[in-house]
Amino acid sequence: MKERMKTVLLVVLVVGSLLQSYVLIFRFPGSDSVVQSKNAYIRTEEMGPEEKPENLLFPDKMIIHLGEDQHTVFYPNDTFYNLVFNRLKGRTFDHFQRRMVSNIDWPKVRSENRGIELSFDSGIPVTLLQKIMQIVPDPLFEGESINKMWLYSVEGEGKIHVMFFSTEGDVVYEAAQADLTVQDVDQLVDFGLNWTPYKMVDGRYYIPVKELSLLSVELPIGEYTVEQMQRSLFFDPSITRNIREKDGSEIYTDSKRSLQVDQGQKWISYTDPAAPPSGENSPGKDVLAAIDFVNQHGGWNGMYRLWKAGKSEDRTLVKFQQYYGGFPILNTPGFHYGMMELDLQQGTVTSYERSLFYLESGTIQKRMAKLSGGETLETKLMPYIKNNSVADLNPAYLPVQTEGRLRLKPVWAIELRNGTVITIE
């Protein structure tokens, strides 16, 4: 009897020891494992809030074609922009057919047919577009990046044409099946009937025929400290050393990773040269990895949109642009703000750049401002029009830092064919 009790006690002790080891390793219930993969991002100091990928993926503008060469433009946060986009996100698109762009007379489609054009400027991978729209998986289509989606009806036809334009420039994909009727699209197009009229210029960009009203605002801003960024980006900040550069910038390094801080611009550049795992780059997966990285290393502090996901050789350059209301905040050489930039290789972040400034809650000063339109705007654009150098034109905010405040000035942002952005007030 005594021996049996000893055996039972020994079994209880062994099971208890195994259970305790399991708890220490995996920290259950409701917690992550202590054992993490080499490339897993470690959650660090809470700074800005996290964001879901679908909230960062939306068109930069929506062009409504009213027929008879009449057009208007909706911008993010416009009531009708949200209404149209939400309706389209619930529709299904399937059976994609590849066509050459040159086989269709697009100026004729634009001027004669009613439709909706969604612009994704620098492009969005189809795998990400599937996160916000009901696009049925298709091997022919899934490897593409799309910079424009265009839905239109042709008089006398009983179906809607739904086109997705590849960033390659010469290819367009038509969804042969879409659960949208001509009446559905007509109803959405009608929202633009009483909106500000726009006209197409040079087949590339639109200008309003009259002035636009935008808010000019002043907002309170805060500033992340270097210590906060160190705790956010280094596994062990206590072993970092500081190097002061001749240009006044400072570098913090743990002999592997480095954090460069431009105190004048309040801009940081973080690099991690860790060798990425072998494999092929996937821009869609890299964008999701970039969002995850920002979620855990600084957060978002405002409204952002995926602006670029460009694949170059063995890396993906990902850029997120900050918005206020429906308009982007420009990142300028004189004041770096409004942009987050990340380089990734096979899902591993190798560089990360952002501002130390962030928007705070507090008193916001607002007043209405006017942006020129019509002939006045065309006159201001004339030097660039003559050189045939304008690629796009959009309302935007020019950030100006004042003492503890950020002033956002409405401007026209002219994107030139060489990628340069010039502003006119």
From TrEMBL:
Protein name per the record: Regulatory protein YycH domain-containing protein
One Pfam family it belongs to: YycH
CDD domains, per the entry: YycH_N
Source organism, top-level taxon: Bacteria
Domain Regulatory protein YycH: 3-418
Gene3D superfamilies: YycH protein, domain 2
